[in-house]
Amino acid sequence: MKVFMPRELDRDRINELMINVLDSEKKPLYKQVELDFTTLKFIQPAGVVALDNMIEWLYKRDVRVDFTYYTNIVDKYHPIKYLDDSGFFEKHLGKRLVKSATLRSTTISLQNVAYEESFSWLQNTFTPWLAQQLGVKKTTLGNIEMCLGEIFNNIKDHSSENIGCLYAQHYPQKKLLTFCIADFGVGIPYNIKRVFPDCSDSEALLHAIEEGFTTKTSPRNLGAGLYTMIKNIVINLKGSVHINSGYGILNVYSDKGAIVTDPFHSDGFYPGTFLEFNINTAEVEKEDLETEEEEEFEW
């Protein structure tokens, strides 16, 4: 079965892509899928992660995945070149499409990270990369590192999967960091509905981010992790969070210092959990500068 990529693959079109390869019971629609990239004109980090996660999901269910794409793409703004530079084709085809393809300094490689490796990866790979990107001290990134650590905890505790697929990009001119992580576990609504069986998937996402709400007795639970992550990113870092799980989608952002939630129902189905964090890096740089000034004053 040939599946054409949408013209634009961003977070708003992820479910549109998923609906072409799996049913609502999380079963593959076909034994063989040909992904046609010739229709793709634009892709964002969210699209990279969701696409990679979908392919990994198909592989695990013995679905053959073939690729159709343009060759000899040299325009750095072409989505195929962007995917090639991210490591996408090397991961799935065992080679880069263009010899000159290389990881861009403003991105961190597309990869799968297991829970057991997550804290080492955060401390030794992600934090040093981001500190270099922003020109700040690694200690300034403690809140961001903690937020991502909570997400890995939640993947282990609640998704039934032990691995998260992730990708990040820094947009220096926009003062923006976009970090995406996804898994194809049971999804947040599945767990929430054990407590609130009659709620919709979007209502389940609202319950999931409530302070103190949990479906487990573990101190590292879903409620604490997501609430802490959202408070830090949305309030302290003036960013936003996008959660997509099952038929539910939730956007969280701040307005005049207050957390605003915007839940809605999706016609498409995401059979796990996808999260996108957008962080205002100007706030990180400001915090780093204030810390440096305080240290100089104390000295």
Structure write-up:
This protein has 299 residues and is α/β, with parallel strands linked by helices. It folds into two domains: 1-104, Transcription Regulator spoIIAA (2-Layer Sandwich); 105-299, 2-Layer Sandwich (Heat Shock Protein 90), CATH 3.30.565. The chain is built from ten helices and ten strands. The chain has helices at 14-18, 45-60, 79-86, 88-93, 115-134, 142-158, 188-192, 201-208, 222-236, 281-298, and strands at 2-4, 8-9, 32-36, 42-43, 64-68, 107-114, 163-171, 176-183, 240-255, 258-280. The strands form three sheets. A five-stranded antiparallel beta sheet has the order 6-7-8-10-9, with helices on both faces. A three-stranded parallel beta sheet has the order 1-3-5, with helices on one face. Helix 6 runs antiparallel to helix 9. The longest helix has 20 residues, at 115-134. It is globular.
Q: In short, what is this structure?
A:
This is Anti-sigma regulatory factor (Ser/Thr protein kinase). The chain has 299 residues and is an alpha/beta fold.
Give the topology, please.
Elements: E1 2-4, E2 8-9, H1 14-18, E3 32-36, E4 42-43, H2 45-60, E5 64-68, H3 79-86, H4 88-93, E6 107-114, H5 115-134, H6 142-158, E7 163-171, E8 176-183, H7 188-192, H8 201-208, H9 222-236, E9 240-255, E10 258-280, H10 281-298
InterPro entries: HATPase_C_sf (IPR036890)
Organism: Lysinibacillus parviboronicapiens
Protein name: Anti-sigma regulatory factor (Ser/Thr protein kinase)
